[in-house]
Write a structure and sequence with these properties.
By secondary structure, the protein is α+β, with helices and mostly antiparallel strands. The chain has four helices and five strands. Helix 3 crosses helix 4.
Length: 153
């Protein structure tokens, strides 16, 4: 069995028809700037010219702020990317699909879609494009990223 066949039991991919089939309705919750929230630090490695990468929906921002305040002293949340433009999401998606196709050139389009969606959300259902998802890690109180055993991305 190659790693492309391994599926964890109980894992539902974002490309699953049960997920993709859910109609999305904008709840009107505004995007808010995560900068300045206590114990949340903003990483610039994924910054983009629009400046949107450090924005998230108000509810997500509130939950992040509460989680950060619950961390032990000396630890903060390091926000790498929250809102992601649809164009950027498509770039990430296409790049990863190209990588997979290079490693496994015989994959059907359906299988490629399924495998790619294990790592990158398809652009048509990507929660980052709504401000409803965040890539984050932990850092120390000085903002240095902590080693959690595997690099982010």
């Amino acid at each position: 069995m190659c790693h492309t066949d391994a599926v964890q039991p109980g894992v539902v991919l974002i490309s699953d028809p049960r997920v993709v089939g859910v109609r999305v309705h904008d709840c009107g919750e505004p995007l808010v700037d995560l900068r300045g929230l206590p114990r949340l630090r903003i990483d610039v490695r994924k910054q983009e010219d629009t400046g949107g990468w450090h924005h998230a929906r108000r509810g997500l921002a509130d939950r992040l702020a509460a989680a950060a305040l619950d961390l032990p002293a000396g630890f903060d949340l390091l926000i790498v990317e929250a809102f992601r433009s649809p164009a950027r999401q498509s770039e990430y998606w296409n790049h990863y699909c190209d990588q997979l196709h290079g490693h496994y050139p015989g994959l059907s389009p359906e299988r490629l879609y399924e495998l790619a969606s294990r790592w990158v959300a398809p652009p048509d259902v990507a929660p980052h494009c709504t401000g409803g998802a965040v890539d984050l890690t932990l850092c120390d109180a000085d903002g240095r990223e902590l080693d959690l055993g595997t690099p982010l991305d």
